[in-house]
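Researcher: Here's the sequence for the chain we discussed earlier.
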Amino acid sequence: MSDVAKVGAQVSVAGTSSSYWSGQTKFEKLGNGTDFGQIVENTLKQQGFHQRRLKNWRAQWEQRKESLKELNTKMGELSTALKKLDTIGEFMGRITTSANPEFVTATADSTAATSPYRVEVKQLAFNDIWTSKTGFASEKEVITNVDSKLSISCGGSTANVDVPAGTTVQGLVKMLNATTELKGKVSVEAIKTAGGEYRLKFSSLKMGENNRIVFNPSTTLACLQTSSMTHLQQGQNSKIKIDGFPEGEDNWIERESNTITDAAKGLTLNLKLPTSPQWAMINVTTDSEKVIENIREFVKQVNVVRKALRDISKVDTDTNKGSVLTGNYGVQLASHRFKDITATKGQGFNNYDFSTGEGDRYNTLRTLGIETETDQGSPDFGLLKIDEEKFEKAMKDDPDGVAKLFSVNYEASTSSSNFAVKSLIKGVTKPGSHDVSYTISGGKITSATINGKEARISGWEITADDMAGLGMAIRVDNHADGTYSGTAGIKNGKIVEMIEALSDMTNAKTGILNIISENYDGIIKNIDKKLDYEKERLDRLEKTLKAKYARLDAVLAKYSGKMQMLQGQVAKLGGSSKS
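Model: Thanks. This is the structure I predict for it:
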């Protein structure tokens, strides 16, 4: 057999052509004309199957990770939105109206009682104002030709100022306004009057009797001694009564302002004119529209996350194909926790007894008409929906109770008047219902349990030792001998409960979504290692193939030359035989 045959070539002398077959790839013209690059490319393509599979696999894990990141972001945004509504004051508003707005107006927060208030205004608060009797032709006029002293007191501070000879009106104003003792207490101005002269004006910056300006006797600057000044307005406190309190003709609520925030809980009064001996009527009512608006916002924001959870974990019933995170245990856990919060009774809320009227009438979202859409054919399947009729009835019956279900924040209550919650530690004491039981004998507590576990006793106080009630102290008010029991409830609204759940799930270290995302990072890193190995393997294979076919190309070129020589000799032989 010839060398050409040994390399798999078939030679047809008559046709002067050659061909080489390797699998499905055909190469024409052996030798330098053979396309070995295509052979290498096809071989690497076949060998790169595992690399392509790894890349597809990596892309799937990246997609899962990105979906978790998007979900985590939506949860963070929900938490931020809910934190604007996590107190009764933020969630529930009050509307105030004044029957006499020219005399007094008011604003109120949710802690203000919904009732009318009779407000009698004896006098308004004023700041203290003095002006110099002496006028000056200009601000540059010298106010004194001899070294003088000026002593001014206001609001508990006294400024003793040396005024050098030659000081101008403008210079004195700057000097006094820069004096540390007078900063924030007294403002000094040079005011030009209609007659064209400048007069000095001293104003206390705060109102009230305690902020009156006094020009002390030690003042030697003649134009600013008390006798040379005009007292335009005397500083005084505002004086009011609310609903006749405090009783007595000479007794008043006094403040150094006309905006009074602490005369009645949750109520801010803005005094404008005296009313005494009459009064102005202020009415405070619940801002039901604000409550309704906030509840709708709650449902809207929660549905953003519920929809995200639904879409990344659903299964297409037509194709039976899952979404990117179908079956993921972290997503399932988050979804179940969300459903539990919106479906279960509020933490620390009690069942309602319709026969006695005791308990919490609105203790679940369902009692308000807020439920989950169960129609699988609906585009809102799995999302919260509102039964408008039921919702409006609840708002009409008990708007305060509705607001509490959403935004009450660690509110303590007991089922018995025999004892009360004295204190608790927010974030430590678990919200919910805690069973309390104790026995009094011989004028002292002899035994006590909280949540079935022995509690510490100190005088007439019981302190929980179990993990759920940790940090809670119970004060016993009925000291009669006997055995007593009941529950201590720590109420958390649904918004507060959801914020805590979101904080747990999105925690950068312990949050379930971040833990899963870190696991995905580990998987992706392992795939990257395999991809690196595959790349190195294919690179080595490519080098090997190129070297192999380079040698083969040289051999084929050699035999191609011999073939051409033989063909030439055959041609000559043919010519000789013809002659």
